[in-house]
Amino acid sequence: MRSLKRCSNAAGGRGKPRAPFLFLFLPAILFLSAVPVLAALFYGPYEPFRLLWINTALYSSRFKFLATALYSEEYIRSVLDKNKPAQDRKTDAGAVDISGGEGIYFDPVKGDYFRGFLIKIEDPRRVELVCSGDPRGMLLESMTAGHRALGGINASGYADEKQRGAPWGHTIVDGSLVSRSLRDGRHVMGGFTGDYKMVVGLFTDDEIAALQYRWAFEFGPLLIVNGEKTELTDFSGGLAPRSAIGQLKNGAVLLAVVDGRRPGSLGATFKDMQTILYANGAVNAIGLDGGSSATMVYRGKVVNTPSEGEAQRLLPNAIIFK
Q1: Model pTM?
Q2: How many CB atoms lie within 10 A of CB 183?
Q3: How far apart are CA 219 and CA 171, in angstroms?
């Protein structure tokens, strides 16, 4: 008697559909499944996601379309107005009493969704603002090396995308105004006076002149004034690479940078930077240019991971320490 052969689908049987056939429909299935979830996030009742999304997009130079393509101009304006940092404070320089110290300390900074670094320079006389001297701008490494500095951090923004050597707003170096804002009225300033005390605030041109800054820049936002945190919402500025500077009551200077737009470090909000500096004792603090400009150098090397990668960004100026 002949033995019975087992049926097999391996050679032309009509069993289960072949895997490649299912793969043809997989993208469509995933897309249709994601649509309701995305619609709920971007247009549903959970407003915090929208606030974070819009602030993150609008405070960047390259990704504004991620907000403008999804929301009306009126709604975007209302979101930004509700999350606009309060900037009507001024420093009382008498709150700082410089007590000396020569140390420099370098430490990592970690949050739930970001990573960065913090440098503490005990002697504020070691810190200064320098300009690139090149209309195209310069890399932070080049500026620190050119001034034989131990390290530094990016400072204010640039006025021209193509000529990044031109600072945005008022800039004072060695007591002289080297660039002027194109806007009239009051200016958010941060810098150090002749007695090495940090003064931040919203000032008129006459007030700026009266302060007799040793060096200063126009940027922001104000983070801490006279030992008190400024009013910032949880979503102000969105998530992005960030830089900031602050001063302790004893005169020591803090430089902070946070990486962003990458796995392991999404970025920080203005409030996150405020929290970092306040927790480390700053009594006055102000934000520096962020995004792809956020860069820190220590002992000749870039220690953070700028969002533009190895190319880095050309900068108009930098805060260095020797």
Answers
A1: 0.87
A2: 10
A3: 10
- Vertex 118: Cα angle to 303 and 235 (nearest 5): 105
Q: What burial class does residue 229 get, using C-beta atoms within 10 Å of its C-beta: 0-12 exposed, 13-18 middle, 19+ buried? A: middle
Strand order in the sheet with 187-193: 176-179, 171-173, 213-218, 187-193, 198-203
253-311 tens-digit pLDDT: 999 999 999 999 999 999 999 999 999 999 999 999 999 999 999 999 999 999 877 77
Domain of residue 156 covers 93-321
Domain shared by 153 and 234, yes or no = yes
The pLDDT of residue 214 is above 90: yes
Sheet holding 317-321, edge to edge: 127-131, 317-321, 151-154, 296-298, 301-302
Number of domains making up the chain: 2
Return the structure tokens found at 149.
Answer: 């500095």
Q: Is residue 33 part of a domain?
A: yes
